[in-house]
Amino acid sequence: MKIKKAKDFQMIEDSAAKPRELRTQSDNSDILNTEGCLLYVIDDDLPTLELYQKVLAMNAREMIVKTFTTPLKALEEMEEMEPDLIICDVMMPEMNGKDFVKHITNIEKYRSIPVILITAGRYDMAFKRECLDRGAIDFLTKPVDLDDLTCRIRSLLRFRLLARNLARTNHEIQEMQKIIMEQEKLKTLNTIIVTLNHEINNPLTSLIGNMELYLADPPTEGLDEIQEAYEAALKIRDIVMKITKVRLSDKVTYLNDVEMFDLNKVGVDES
Questions:
Q1: Cβ 88 vs Cβ 109: under 8 Å
Q2: What is the Cα 232 distance to its own chain's centre?
């Protein structure tokens, strides 16, 4: 068999598979649907790469497969498009599969990508454990049962999709909790405002009424003090009325991140 050079190797993409960007969250009938999932296959042996592509094109037509002859080329491509799963040979020049797994698991955004390592050599259990400890999710020895490999790929992808869906749901729950907490704060604030209005306004109204009666027939002494107290009581009543009408848009932040309502803004926009 004539071995093609890496530069002559052309990736065969399955035109029937939908790109992952076209997948929508409205497809809730099957949140674990692997359609459009992107697979990276890394192996320095071109015939092996072609074999993987042919098998996956037949058995997993819903997925998109990209092949690479070195992990370094795969890392360059990952900057543009993050794969959903990676199949990687162990023994390769420049960077072997074990070091590749260790490298991507040290990068936060790639840490959750499942990697299946495949090797033609015979390795003891200690070596396999080391690969798994470095971040590989599975370890297979050639010759690989390709039907079994396809099943493993689908299974790992479903776990990844499930984890992604759970993370999204958890984020939505956290956002909803924030909204509920804000609503509870507003409800509590409204209760406080109503209470203040009732407990302060009632005696204040009585005080203002008595002062008005007193000022209608003022005494010869202390008139200025009584007039000043009366004006202060009117100002307090005005503040209480404004507090009952505050909105979130009236809130301002002062020094040391202290938040208060600007009562001068209350009711300004009202027609």
A1: no
A2: 53
Using DSSP's 3-state secondary structure scheme, residue 267 falls into: coil
Q: Residue 185's pLDDT is what?
A: 80
Mean pLDDT throughout 204-228?
78
Burial-class residue 229 by CB neighbours within 10 Å (0-12, 13-18, 19+): middle
**Cβ atoms within 10 Å, residue 119:** 21
Task: Identify the pLDDT of residue 11.
Answer: 34
Amino acid in position 1: M
> Look-up: residue for tokens 């409204």?
190
CA angle 155, 145, 62 (to 5 degrees): 45
- How far is the C-alpha of 35 from the C-alpha of 87, rounded, in Å? 18
Q: What is the pLDDT of residues 53-74, one digit of tens each?
A: 888 887 777 788 899 999 999 9
Q: Which of 82, 84, 105, 103 is nearest to 94 (CA)?
A: 103
| DSSP-assigned letter for residue 79 | T
